[in-house]
Amino acid sequence: MVELGYALSSEEHTPNDLVRYARRAEEIGFPYALISDHYHPWIDNQGNSPFVWTVIGGIAQATQRLRLGTGVTCPTVRIHPAVLAQAAATAASMMPGRFFFGVGSGEALNEHILGDHWPPARVRHDMLEEAIEIIRLLWEGEEQNYWGEYYTVENARIYTLPDELPPIYVAASGLDAAEMAGEVGEGLISTSPGGEILREFESAGGLGKPRYGQVTVCWAEDELAALHTALTCWPTAGMPGPLHADLPTPAHFEAAARMVKEDDIRQKVVLGSDVDRHLEEIHKMDEAGFTHVYIHQVGPDQEGFFRFYEREILPQVVRSG
Known about the structure:
Elements: E1 3-8, H1 15-28, E2 32-35, H2 52-62, E3 67-70, H3 81-94, E4 99-103, H4 108-111, H5 121-138, E5 144-147, E6 152-156, E7 168-171, H6 175-184, E8 187-190, H7 195-206, E9 211-218, H8 223-233, H9 241-246, H10 250-257, H11 262-268, E10 270-271, H12 275-288, E11 292-297, H13 302-320
Parallel strand pairs: 1-2, 1-11, 2-3, 3-4, 4-7, 7-8, 8-9, 9-10, 9-11
Antiparallel strand pairs: 5-6
Helix pairs in contact: 1-2, 1-13, 2-3, 3-5, 5-6, 6-7
């Protein structure tokens, strides 16, 4: 049975709205949510990018049952893994048994801001693997030291640790990352629908572990209105995957997005209020092998989306399960 969740898009919404949407997601029956962790939005039209750890604190106080994970945090360049080990431990302490830590190798869009070199993908994967090792070491408690190829930790101890440590889920959009996720992660997060990634993840040690996949939708009563909203707010859905990792600024993404056509968006985003179309996309992810599917509603009309999913989608997914 696939379990549906909700995507909190930090690039599109203010911090207080994100807290409010998390509470609404819990109220209508979503059992979990993933929140994006960015320094910049993808394009200026999205207009937001709050510090995710502050927002997580607000969500911890505004919800009682909702499980929450980062979708995803890059623990390698902009913020040292030792600092993020503390941040995630604090979040898990505030949400006992409800927090999971999603990590990935990041994008230049967010990670280049301090002038650090943006390494190639293979190096980024090695850095992520070392960062995960450091995070787990610090979660053991006591004073720790680490001298690695990329990071140094000296005399560090995390004093505030949860009774139950959060699982670490690793993001993958390609086969190399899927292999690493299977080897070192306790679960997988992916926005790529292909079964190849899941097979690579499972063959590398991920068999039986949770697999989270994202579906992007733009609910509106009118399909053309939804198409306009998606083109305005989330044209990056129609961009080739490799560009996402290496373009450095929202202006670069906006320039690339000018090449995105309406048909590109129609292929990548579920548009409008056709119940069967929404269920079909969820079913595809279920058939591909994802155990969890979280829904990203593009644009400002989150309340219309919540009413539609509460009435039309969540009951049918539960019944089919």
